[in-house]
Write a structure and sequence with these properties.
The structure is a homodimer. Chain A is α+β, with helices and mostly antiparallel strands. Chain A has six helices and eight strands. The interface between A and B is medium-sized, with 26 and 26 residues. The structure holds a DNA duplex.
DNA sequence: GCAAAAGTGTTTTCAATACACCCATGG
DNA sequence: CCATGGGTGTATTGAAAACACTTTTGC
């Protein structure tokens, strides 16, 4: 560990793990690092905190700059302060969890082709720079606690969706499986859904019914 | 808002809300501020982070210095970055929640009479400096989520305790009441308790049975 | 018509709740 | 003996879990 240039912290950075659901898979958004150290490795979006901004302002701007995404749902997760997490300088990192629906994600990508970010399934994370793999792991744990909340589901599924889709998302994030009949029974009993009277055609097997969330739903926790 | 001396953060500080249970009451440990600004107001223990330490090391040392308490159970809660939270400089604060049993707390106080800290019931917090009242509020919310975990109970009640005592702690922290019979039934069904065959004599009414936690108990959540 | 995935209903089990009386101590 | 607080048992309710067959589509 090199000596630091002053007594108190040099830098505080933000990092964010943005989640989405793409074709039934839960994915996170990563950026490829183009310079040393860790050139070619992947990193989480984020930036150094300036004295004129809050952590939340900073990460909101960084997300727009580095991923093109606007209006991502944000929650602060954890602050990492290991002395060895950055080999060059003393950098503390505050991590956030972000949520965005896949349609918004796609639109932004088309508008900003220069962005070198990519979505990775949470079970198939590439080689990460610094301690970012640990940061992702902790943010996934954080999401596990939050996914029971209906608000996050509403962000992941702003438009029509099927019950099997939502069930698969729960199964990936919570790491367990549910009985289809019991899952449906419980979800419908919550009285959050509106039947669109449409079907999810074009796939194998019997088409699933499409639902959407009702407008004014109370804040409830599932599971 | 004054201008800052450089682009990146000047200071990162730690703050801790230490909880204990004293005669059935849930309390937090506060320190009286002896200099301006906010002279005479109360503050949370904590200190400025140096480049040679982690947040966790820093808060552990600060707790020992400022309160005399050793071996406090720690969990990081939240990082506060409002531009106006400190009127003198840009200071970011990472807050921790701490837990200590009342017997350890008392012993340390007797050994360190110069310490100017005091325990306050969580429903009767004095005038706090800076944004420390908000920090306490958020840390109490954090404790609410954690008190369901048996490990924290084991720290609060290392030695013999009665079921009505534990029930009262839950009621204070969660802010609701429980039926005595159902609380007891549920707690005993968890198979965490060992009957000491002793009674809590010297109080009004029928003496309560004294219990202790079994040695090798699995990690479970109540409620 | 067959493979693939979705929809549906019933029974059982267990935890949560509601509730009233008796017991042990201090004063 | 009485006030105070602690201990105990039962009945009800509701949610969770276990479980098998039928339906609709694509090919």
């Amino acid at each position: 560990m090199s000596t630091f240039t002053k007594d108190y912290v040099n830098y505080l950075e933000t990092l964010i793990t943005i989640f989405t659901v793409d074709k039934g898979e839960v994915k996170v958004l990563l950026v490829r690092k183009s310079d040393d150290p860790y050139k070619g490795y992947w990193i989480l979006p984020g930036s150094m905190l300036k004295n004129t901004e809050t952590l939340e302002d900073n990460i909101t701007d960084a997300v727009l700059d580095q991923t093109g995404l606007l209006s991502v749902y944000l929650e602060q997760c954890y602050t990492f302060s290991s002395l060895t997490r950055n080999p060059e300088d003393r950098v503390i990192a505050t991590s956030f969890m972000g949520i965005v629906d896949s349609k918004s994600a796609e639109i932004k990508r088309e508008e900003r082709p220069e962005i070198v970010s990519e979505w990775f399934p949470i079970n198939n994370i590439p080689k990460m720079a610094y301690d970012h793999e640990e940061v992702i792991r902790r943010n996934v744990e954080f999401l596990k606690k939050k996914i029971v909340n209906i608000n996050i589901l509403k962000i992941l599924f702003p438009s029509d969706f099927t019950l099997p889709e939502i069930q698969k998302v729960y199964e990936q994030i919570l790491g367990k499986t549910f009985d289809r009949r019991n899952f449906r029974k419980k979800f419908i009993a919550l009285d959050l859904l509106e039947d669109t009277n449409e079907k999810n055609i074009g796939f194998n097997g019997r088409p699933a019914k499409l639902y959407r969330f009702k407008d004014n739903i109370k804040q409830v926790d599932l599971f």
